[in-house]
Design brief:
The protein has about 290 residues and is mainly beta. It has helices at about 1-20, 195-205, 225-230, and strands spanning about 25-30, 35, 40-45, 50, 55-60, 65-70, 75, 80-90, 95-110, 120-125, 130-135, 140-145, 150-155, 160, 170-175, 175-180, 190-195, 255, 260.
Length: about 290
Amino acid sequence: MKHVFIVLFLLVSQSKTYAEELHGIFMVVKGNVEVESKKTGKFKAKVSSKVYAGDTVSTDADGRGKIVMSDRNVLNVSPSTKFTINKYENDSTTGVKNVDIELSEGKLRSNVEQKYDGEKSQYLIKTPTAVAGVRGTQFLTSFDKVSRKTEIVTFKGTVAFSLPGSSAPPVMVKKGETSSLSQGQTAPEAPKKLDKKDLDSASKGSTAKNEDTKDQGRSPASEGNSESMIDGNDKAANDKNVPRSPDSPPPPQMGPQGPTNIVKPPPGPPPVPQVDQTQRLKSKVIIVPTR
């Protein structure tokens, strides 16, 4: 019985360690992207580089990246951006899911595939002037460190936008809407609807496309229009090397150029030589086995 207990303890410990440590992988890297990690030190990111809770990611003016997290949430990092993953929990053994990301400057797009209730489980993007909380959505958070202004654009779902530490009800920013909050304000601006042109521009400008990595030896992948990019293009299931938590379903099988190539049928048997009818009795019968 003692041996059984030890084995079960080791299995649970390994599962929990996997959920805690395997947090995300860079699927797209363009330009200069740096990671400052307490676990692995400071390094320049490349495709397949890993990020963990406690890491700080920064991009130069030419830098851009896409990180797929272990629970299939996606972070698209724009140029001139810096953020820190303060907390990232997704433990299948306890059901605990909590995300706390601090955006110091720039723009960070979150495509949230997991569901958060806002109480027992939370997904928060914090800036020095505001807090954005979601339950499952796609949105862009930007912070200008000069003007101290935070802006939210929601592509899908709803974002709860509020002042840090405020007990007032948050402003709910719905799909296609934007809101902002500057230092000194007591509440976010009332949400306003974006026209389709501005919404599409914000969406395209905040998504790191797969073809951005062609200078790193990766084959470009086809990208859909802006609507498909908003709704599903960044799902981790589209990427071959996505990290998965223990309870995640396996991603679909993909070939090096996208979906598995169609297998061509084997060639048929060679044609039977034509036999001269006048020489039929003198000819040999040729039997060609089929494959």
